[in-house]
Prior knowledge:
single chain, 439 residues, Rossmann fold, 4 domains, 5-stranded mixed β-barrel, 15 helices, 21 strands, binds iron/sulfur cluster
Amino acid sequence: MADPKKLFIKTYGCQMNVYDSERMAEALGGSGYVETRTPEDADMILLNTCHIREKAAEKVYSELGRYKGLKAANPDLKIGVAGCVAQAEGDEIMRRQPLVDLVVGPQAYHRLPEMEARARSGHKALDTDFPAEDKFEHLKARPKAARGPTAFLTVQEGCDKFCAFCVVPYTRGAEVSRPVNRILGEARDLVERGVREITLLGQNVNAYHGAGPDGETSLAGLIWALNDIDGLERIRFTTSHPNDMSDDLIAAHGTCEKLMPYLHLPVQSGSDRILKRMNRAHTRDSYLALIDRLRAARPDILISGDFIVGFPEESDEDFADTLDLIERVGYGQAFSFKYSPRPGTPAAERPQVAPDVADARLQELQALITRQQRARQDAMVGQTVGVLFEKPGRLPGQMVGKSDHLHAVHVDDCAARPGDLCAVRIVSSGPNSLAGILA
Length: 439
Ligand code: 5AD
Ligand code: SF4
């Protein structure tokens, strides 16, 4: 038998890209590829790209430039670009970087094997369609290899919200939900292979409305169906829009034992004036009221968020409103970004905030978030929490895993094995993780 060809995939951006990369590697497995960790010995390099902020696309072009020498040394090397930069820039990528053999948008991954064959026969291959068929249904099934204890599972893709700053509705297309039975099948398969925790993914995951046995099913309905799978211990989901936090989903946070007490709920800004310009379709008060309802359902729920500073026309007063909202919510985790104008989005046309002003705001906001994160983490000391162990730590005998609230936890001299879910008493809090002992 011929030696397998080697595939190197580099993944940028969100967890949905991590999931897509896994599935692409599996699909190309059918064309005789095995994954390698280094680009140097690869027969095919695939960059799974992100277009959400400017720097992300620039990184892709500079990475491609670095492969020039590899292609000179190995003329059979094929280079592909997948993901949202592929969708947004299409054949511009091939023009700008002639090294590229293949460009595939996120909705066309099931066509990769054909495209690979085309590239092997010396032609360029480009596909940035939004085909009617479901790419996941047509992607090869996951092979039965053992898995670590945690996995991502994409249940919904695309977004119809059109926030004024965001490229996702253009690069990922309209909202589409996968049917319940396919998700349950994939989840059972993951559990058989060792997975104990599944994070359901979607750009707008809580807008999920997949076809189920009794008609259209909400995300809460899907979570309850997953709750019945023996051996699955934990369920998470991300990312949610405040306007799609339905009553049944809020209630599930209080009643569904496997649903973890953590919610990533981006608000982007605390100023009503800016929220309106962002086309977010919610206000600061409606967001704060929602947080109150979630905490009434699940008092210890840890809230995570995303913030954009320096959105066009953001004033000092608007920014002060954002800081005030952060103070009121008390985030356990948050991601913050300086506004980056994306071509084709409405906000890119508006008057921009001076970069030094945006930088200063970002620093101030991040300092506040860091203090809050640390305070939430420190407050875990003395509590007993569930920890799903994932792998050995750096020290001999040490094991590391994640708590119910998604804090990193390490335990020294630990008898637990990867995949064990144990009660752990937290004894101290460090800069990036908690230390505990088995309870
Ligand atoms: N500029 C800066 N941040 C952005 N995000 C999305 N688009 C932009 C942009 N143009 C941030 C939002 C979103 C997260 C995934 O990325 O906060 O929630
Ligand atoms: Fe982008 Fe999220 Fe807004 Fe959709 S809801 S447009 S993915 S920021």
